[in-house]
Each structure stands twice: as C-alpha cells, then as structure tokens.
Amino acid sequence: MQSQSAQKRKIRQTLVAYSFIAPNFIGFAVFTLGPIIMAFLLAFAEWDGNNPLKFVGISNFTGLFTNDRFMASLKNTIVYSLFTVPFTLIVALGLAILLNQKIRARTFFRTVAFFPYVASLVAVAAVWNMLFTPAKGGLINQLLMNVLHMQPLKWAASPKTVMFTIVLFSIWKNMGYYMVIYLAGLQGISEDLYEAAALDGAGALQKFRYVTLPQLKPTTFFVTIMLTISCFKIYDIVYMLAGGSNGVVNKSATVLVYYIYEEAFRNWHLGSASAAALVLFAIVLIVTLIQFRGEKNYAND
Amino acid sequence: MRTKSTNRFITMTIIYILLIILAFVMLIPFVWMISASLKFNKDIFVIPYEWISKEPRWQNYLDIWTKIPLAKYALNTVKLTLIVTILQILTSSFAAYAFAKLQFKGRDLLFLAYIATIAVPWQVYMVPQFLFMRRLGLADTHLAIIILQAFSAFGVFLMRQFYEGIPDSLCEAARIDGMSEYGIYARIMLPLSKPALSTLTIFTFVNTWNDFLGPLIYLTTDSKKTLQIGIKMFISQYSAEYGLIMAASVLSLIPVLIVFMSLQKYFVAGITTGAVKG
Question: Burial, A22: exposed, middle or buried (Cβ in 10 Å; 0-12, 13-18, 19+)?
C-alpha cells in the first residue's frame, strides 16, 4: 500500500519535472537537435531542395578539397584567425591592465572600450566603410597622407589589403568583450602575491612577468579558445566590409560561413554546403576538446 | 620619497595618455557618424573635414523615414526582440528550475543534450533548419525568426548555473509548507534570480536586435524586414547617400545604447559567468 503511493508520488514528480522542461525542450529538439542530425545526413547526399535526395557517400567532401573557392575560404578563415586571435588578445590584456588601475573616470573608459561590441554591426561597418574609403578624401587616408606621409591605401577595395582591413575592424569591435574577461581575471589575483613580490624587490615589470602573467594563464587559455571559435564563425563582418553592392564576396575575402551560405542559398548545392558546415564543425570541435583538456589541467594545478 | 612620487606622476601621465588615445580610437567612428549624418553628401569627403557643419542638415533625419520604411523596420525589430526575449526568459528559467532543483529520470541525459549543442555553431545547421522551416511554410515569416532565437541552450545553461547557487533547503521548506513546484518556481526562484534574468535579457535583446544572418536568410518581403537588413539593403542600393545612411545608423544605435547603459552591470556579469574560475 505504502510503496504504491510512493511510486505514484514519484511518477507525479517526474511528470511535474517534464512539464517544466517541455516548453523549451520541444522547441529545442524540433528546431535545433533535429536540424543538427539532418546536417550530418545532408553532408553525404546530393540535394537541391526540390528533386529527390540522393546519397553520394563522401564525394561532397572530396569535392570540397578540389574546389578553389572552398580552399580559398578555408585559407582566408585560417589567416584571419591567425592574425585576429593574438592581436585581440594582446590589446584586450593591455586594456584590462590599464583599466584595472586606480584612475579617474574608470567606468567611463570601460564603457567606451566595450560599446563597439554591442553596437549594431551594420551601423559601425557603414562608418568604417566611409572612414576607410579607398578615395583620398577618406579620413584615414587623409591621416596616412598628411600625418604619416604615406601613400593612401585601397583598404577593403584591394585584394591585398582587404583581410588586413577586416582584421583591424574585428579587433576594434571585439576587444572590449575580451577585456571584460581579463578584468575579471585580474581582480581574481590575490593582493598578497603582489605584496610578496614587492618584498622581494620586484619592480612593476617583474611583477607583471612573474605574478600577473602566470596567474592569468587560465584566463588567457579561455580567451584564446573563445576567440578562435568566434573567428572561425566569422561571416557578417566580411559581408559588410568586403561584399559588393550585390552582396557577393570575392575570392580574396571569402570565408567558411560565407561559402556555406553561398553554396546553400545561392547555388542550392545543399549537400556540399552541409559538408562544408561539417568541416567547420570539426574545427570547432577540435578546439573545444582542447579546451576540455586544458581545463582539466588547470583544475589539477 | 621625492623620486617615488615623480615616478608615480610619470606612470599616471602615461596611463592617461594611453586612455585618451583609447577613447579617441573607440569614439571617433561614432562621433564621425553623428557629424556625417548632419551633412550633404557632397560635403562628406571634403578636405579638410569639417567636424561641425556650419549648417547642420537635420533634414536627413526626416528624409530617412520616407526614403525607406524605417518605421516599419523598427516596429518589426522591436516586435521580434520583445517576443524573443520574453519567450527566452520564460522557457529557459522554467526548464532550468527542473534541471537544478528536481530529481527525475533522464535529467542528466537531457541536460547533456543541451550542453552538447552549445558547442555546435548555428552556422553548422542553419541550412537544414531553413529547409525544415520552409517545409512547415515558415520561410519569410516572423514566426521563423522567433523560433530560431527563442529556445537557446545558452539560456537554460545560464539560468541553471544560477539556480544551483540557491540553497535546496529553501525549496524543501516551501514543499513542507505545501507549496507546489510551480509555486516555488514563481514565488521563490524567479524573484531571487533577478540578476541572472537581467543578464539573459540584455544578451537576448542585443543578439536579436543586432541579428543579421537569420533575417537575411529568412525574410525576403520588404515589409517584414528588420532594421539591420533594411539598412543594409538601403546601403547597397544607395551607397552614395552618405548622410542618410549615417542618420539611419545613428537611429538604429540609440535603443542599444539605452539598454546597454541601463543594464551594463548585468552584461559584464554574464560575460564573466563561467569564464573565470577560482
């Protein structure tokens, strides 16, 4: 008798729990989990969205690696990440150290450094396109010519400088975000360590080298991972800065996600788009696994 | 003593110089944006640049509303952002309560499903997701954008982390008093989780407001477009209407600026959740 009522209560409890989860989980399962599974199937098929789907084995993947445009996208994405990750990291760390000092108007400066991150991309990219216009009348080219006595640059309009322009913009827009993470890291360092270092006669530079940097190692690791993943997902910045009036991005600036978008929604090569998407997923997964490993190491320390 | 204070003075001077350079680099684009929004197109690339026009052209701020259906775009964006934010907060906090405070079969497995998808970028499954939505007849509808954004794993994860920090004894006491689980959620957990709810609100708001790729793929009818897509189309079509483009940009930034200024504290809290341990 008693065990029966206990069992009833347990079933009731489970039902209540599921009723809490259901609204979110149903939406999540149908519109996120389902499509993820579909992405894996599609990558091994040929489909234009209308005619019957045909499974083709791994030919979508082998096709990718002989495709010029895909290889250019992959190369550009890697180059972009190689430059954006270290420079954003260094600038973010520098900013965090500056803004961790006891200074006036600290909140103001933090807000200023962070605002570009939340500002709508369309708006700030529009300003950048005008400031960095290839014309001589642009503010930045004026600066180059009159202050630094250099030749004006073509910026996003030339295949030689387009990636440089995109990297510069990304650093400017996103460094505030990583600065906030570094600030939290800096505030977690115990004051005692600095005092002990001061007793040993360490100067400011030595404190930075022997206390700050080693203590920030987990933060730096985390920032590197986050930055790398977000770099591989880059799309909209390229579309805004390097996309022509018809939105087409040249081979000199195309990136992985742009390739997926173009293959799927312009060419309707859905299978090959999904194969490219899985390549992106594989890269992100590898980076995430490295993160798990690293976090375990830091936890053991 | 004296050298120490001179040293300090020099350090502080360097710090302030760096900070002023920083503020300059970060703010110039925004200042230029406002300045250019008050100009005739022909005056934008005049050398030397005139930061404050002698005759500011306020007309740009009136013309932009008739040149493109900016009011419609804004209305669409506000509508989508509000619905997504409310749905996201309700469903995430609701599900997170069960994950954090209830015992039931399959809990860990279900939660693992959420966690695993956080690592999968949306760009990986956006194509099949679109095909599926199209099948359901949701292509070119606002409902598609709402569905796209409203059930994120991130929201559930964030809320669960916060609820874990609230002592179980609180729920136990309420249960003994005869309160139902729904009552505990509504009367105890929700009021206690204001900081986490604020963080989720501002993240969802900014993401939905600024989202570009989603609306770009889904919304094709002009009257359904959001601010971001609408302004981008305008820029592509009239790339030489500099003054108007800048006026539209300034207008689209104002709501973000207001929300950001009032909830900044929670934004920072959200970024650092899980970012730094110990």
Answer: middle
Q: What angle do CA A292, A295, A297 make, to 5 degrees?
A: 115
Nearest to A153 by CA among A129, A136, A130: A136
| Contacts A–B by Cβ distance under 8 A | 263
Contacts of B143 in chain A (CB under 8 A): none
Asked if A214 and A180 count as a contact pair (C-beta separation under 8 A), the reply is no
- ipTM associated with this complex: 0.85
* Percent of residues, chain A, with pLDDT higher than 90: 50
Residue A45 pairs in a beta bridge with: A55
CA of B78 vs chain A CAs: smallest distance (Å): 14
Of A27, A264, A232, give the one whose Cα is nearest residue B148.
A27
pLDDT score for A70: 96
Degrees (nearest 5) of the Cα angle B81, B83, B89? Answer: 95
Mean of the per-residue pLDDT values of chain B:
87
Which of B95, B124, B231 lies at the smallest CB-CB distance from A39? B124
- Smallest Cβ distance to B153: which of A23, A28, A137? A28
The answer to whether B59 touches B175, Cβ cutoff 8 Å, is no
Q: What is the mean pLDDT of residues A22-41?
A: 91
| Residue A48 neighbours by CB distance under 10 Å | 12
Tokens of B167: 């002592």
Which region holds residue A133: left if phi is over 0, alpha if psi is between -120 and 50, else beta?
A: beta
Instruction: Determine the distance from the C-alpha atom of residue B15 to the mean position of all C-alpha atoms in its chain, rounded to a whole number.
Output: 31
In terms of CA atoms, which chain B residue is nearest residue A289? Answer: B119
Q: How confident is the model at residue B276 (pLDDT cuts 50, 70, 90)?
A: very low
Reply yes or no on whether the pLDDT at A3 is more than 80. no
Q: Could you report the per-residue pLDDT of A83-131, keeping only the tens digit for each? A: 999 999 999 999 999 999 888 888 888 888 888 998 999 999 999 988 8
The CA distance from B2 to the nearest CA of chain A, in Å, is 17
d(CA A156, CA A134): 8
Record the tokens describing residue B110, joined without a space: 């279900």
Please check the confidence at residue B50 and state whether its pLDDT lies above 70. Answer: yes
CA distance A243 to B235: 12
What pLDDT does residue A227 have?
A: 92
Treating both helix axes as pointing N-terminal to C-terminal, what angle do B70-101 and B153-164 enclose, rounded to 10 degrees?
A: 40
Question: Is residue B88 a contact partner of residue B155, using CB atoms and an 8 Å limit?
Answer: yes
CB A288 within 8 A of CB A225: yes
Q: Where are the domains of chain B?
A: 2-59, 61-272
Residues of chain B in contact with residue A124, where contact means CB-CB under 8 angstroms, are 29, 249
Q: Classify domain B61-272 at the CATH topology level.
A: MetI-like fold (1.10.3720)
Shortest CB distance from A116 goes to which of B26, B128, B264? B26
Q: Cβ separation of B128 and A257 shorter than 8 Å?
A: no
Put simply, the answer to whether B47 touches A142 (Cβ < 8 Å) is yes
B212 neighbors A236 (Cβ within 8 angstroms) = yes
In one-letter notation, the amino acid at residue B272 is: T
Q: Which residue from A14, A285, A288 is facing B104, i.e. has the nearest CB?
A: A14
Mutation target for B interface from A11, A18, A24, A233: give the one with most B CBs within 10 A. A24
